[in-house]
Design the sequence.
């Protein structure tokens, strides 16, 4: 939580960081067809207020994907939510 960041017309309310990881197996009963997928990433959500009325959340994130323990790609995310 921020106590005094900004001006009366535009101020920051809070910052919420997150770290995540997921995993998935396909065909777990069949060893020859089985594949493993995973990703690891992080995200930060920043809530701010504009003109005492509009609550907004800016989200920034990054994740890396893996298939069978080999890196297959990465992804960047940027989102603005206006409430």
Sequence:
């Amino acid at each position: 939580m921020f106590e005094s960041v900004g001006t009366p017309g535009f101020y920051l309310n809070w910052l919420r960081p997150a770290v995540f990881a997921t995993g998935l197996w396909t065909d777990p009963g069949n060893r020859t067809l089985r594949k493993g997928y995973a990703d690891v990433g992080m995200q930060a959500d920043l809530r701010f207020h504009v003109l005492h009325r509009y609550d907004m959340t800016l989200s920034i994130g990054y994740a890396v994907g893996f298939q069978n323990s080999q890196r297959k790609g990465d992804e960047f995310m940027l989102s603005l939510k206006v409430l």
Summary: The two ends are 19 Å apart (CA to CA). Residues 1 and 12 are 8 Å apart (CA to CA).
